[in-house]
Amino acid sequence: MRRLRWVPLGVLLLGVAEFFALVGVANLVGVPAAVIGVIALSVLGGLLLRREGLKGWRKLRAATNAGGPAGDGVLLSVAGLLAALLLLIPGYLTGLLGLLILIPPLRKLVRDRLRGATERRVSSNVAGDLFGPRKVRVTTTKHPPKSPTSEDVIEGEIVD
Q1: What sign has the CA pseudo-torsion 93, 86, 8, 112?
Q2: pLDDT tens digits, one per residue of 50-97
Q3: Is the pTM of this model over 0.90?
Q4: Which of 62, 64, 92, 126 could bond 21 through an S-S bridge, CB–CB 3.0 to 4.6 Å?
Q5: Using CA atoms, how far apart are residues 37 and 68, in angstroms rounded to an integer?
Q6: H-run or E-run covering 149
Q7: Backbone dihedral angles phi then psi of residue 139, each to the nearest 5 degrees
Q8: How does pLDDT run across 101-132, given as a tens digit for each residue?
Q9: In whole angstroms, what separates CA 130 from the centre of its chain?
Q10: Is 137 left (phi over 0), alpha (psi -120 to 50) or beta?
Q11: Are 130 and 118 in contact (CB under 8 A)?
């Protein structure tokens, strides 16, 4: 909850930055074109919000019906929804960030970040149900037995 105390300040700073970005764009292209640009970005965000929401719902239903994990396909749609929400917020900075998230490599990066955040917050069983089995790299080293019941030690790292 400590992080949430900075949200109002962040929103205020974002609003000020958006205002100055709008003034800068208005100086470059004129006030009517700047306002039309903000409106166009918001309309694009609204259309994208509907499309990505429906696409995510279809992917979730298809994965559920197939009995497989739905995580990565749904998280790509969540990244698209995030981009749509950023576009929907009136302003050039949030619009630019939303447009950047629509670029496939950046969208996959956002998906991977969302997956990592989800895996940290849910149990490993739930994460396995959402995303399927995790890929791990395993190396084995043999240690001299200290007792007759000792087993090999397996050292590994999780690789995404």
Answers
A1: negative
A2: 888 888 888 888 877 887 777 777 888 888 899 999 999 999 999 999
A3: no
A4: 92
A5: 42
A6: none
A7: -125, 145
A8: 999 999 999 988 988 888 788 777 777 767 77
A9: 15
A10: beta
A11: yes
